[in-house]
Amino acid sequence: MQVIIFEDYLAAELKPVTLTRPALGVSMCGTNLYNLLKFKGFKISYIVRQYLRDFCAEDFPNHLLNSKDKMGLLFINASFPPVNRIIQQIIDLTAKKKPFLAESDSRVVCAFFPEISFDLNKFDERSLTNFLREQEYEFLEERFPLINYPFDIIRYNKYYFQENLQELIKGFKEREADVFVGKNVQIHPTACMDTEGGTIVVDDDTTISPFVYIKGPVYIGKNCKITERASIKDMCHIAAHCKVGGEVECSIMEVFSNKQHHGFLGHSWVGSWVNMGAGTSSSDLKNTYGEITINYQGKKIPTGMQFLGCIIGDYSKTAINTSIFTGKIIGAASYAYGFVTTNVPSFCNYARGFGQVTEHYLPAVVKTQERMFARRNVNQTRIHVKLLEDIYQMTRDERIMSTDNLSF
What we know:
Layout lengths: L1 E5 L26 H7 L4 E4 L5 H4 L14 E7 L6 H10 L6 E5 L2 E10 L10 H7 L4 E3 L9 H19 L4 E4 L2 E3 L4 E2 L4 E3 L5 E3 L4 E2 L4 E3 L2 E3 L4 E2 L4 E3 L2 E3 L4 E2 L2 E3 L2 E2 L4 E2 L4 E3 L2 E2 L4 E2 L4 E2 L10 E4 L2 E4 L8 E2 L4 E2 L4 E2 L4 E2 L4 E2 L2 E2 L7 E4 L4 E4 L2 H14 L6 H13 L1 H5 L8
Parallel strand pairs: 1-2, 1-3, 4-6, 8-11, 9-12, 10-13, 11-14, 12-15, 13-16, 14-17, 15-18, 16-19, 17-20, 18-21, 19-22, 20-23, 23-28, 24-29, 25-30, 28-31, 29-32, 30-33, 32-34
Antiparallel strand pairs: 3-5, 4-5, 7-8, 26-27, 34-35
């Protein structure tokens, strides 16, 4: 059986999370959808937005299909959270060799066809859903989770974290009770690994510095550095090559991001190549203890969540002592200063407290990317620059909005 992960037309709406990455590569619960299915032994093909195809090919190899052969194909929506138990439930249904399809919120979640001719190159994120609905199948009544809003990433990360780690620890060495490590992991003797609430996984070549406190369940990726006296607690997913200090709780940090200094990050998602200045803190609880509502694409959306911090897009930076209010969204490649009291468009210098919100022009972003990459021994290629050029144009409307209505 071949697995095809597909983005539908709503995947692009998860700004800024999926502005710079395919939905199948969003980290949560210790993995992402692509890696979870790869972990389970499948060859994976995928359909993503055109402008992301070259960019994601290196990290996510796209297995080619033979369009002349009829084979069993399992289609899974790229916005499906990478939850091992539910993915396995869907895989088990394919053993009956009968076609099925499931929907959630009017989106196709998954579909299976034991014999179907399919040409991967003939479909995009808009046409595939119609193609699947045109086939003959049994409609599944089960309701499966989908990521419809950026805050759903934080919600599902919290719900499924511990149970996911129980599957993902295979291949790791148990260093002590419920603490699993990869190769060449260095944990200082003064570090406290608290597993009373869940499993702790530390991946290859990561260093845990003196007097660090880690409270499981937690996943820390490869080549990370957790700085001295850091406090990493409860459902934190820290992807590869991150440097983390201060207090972090129930949050996700994508690859190559830094939060080295004191300050609090809670119930948040932080993209790749983000740097949070010393003293930066995010609020994740209203003073009234009420439900958090976010401004999202011009609408007020109730989240159903009492705890929700911020969403920060790739390449964004915060200055020292930046304070991010509850439920705020910072776009890609923006700089934030002072108090972040509204959403921040992509490619902006945001200093609203000082009366200044200006555009962060593309040439400066490209130059900064080159410097950041050099510090981490990453080669900036034309593909990286092209992605910045694409998203700069795609987010132009965000920056046209008046400074009195900085939400998107």
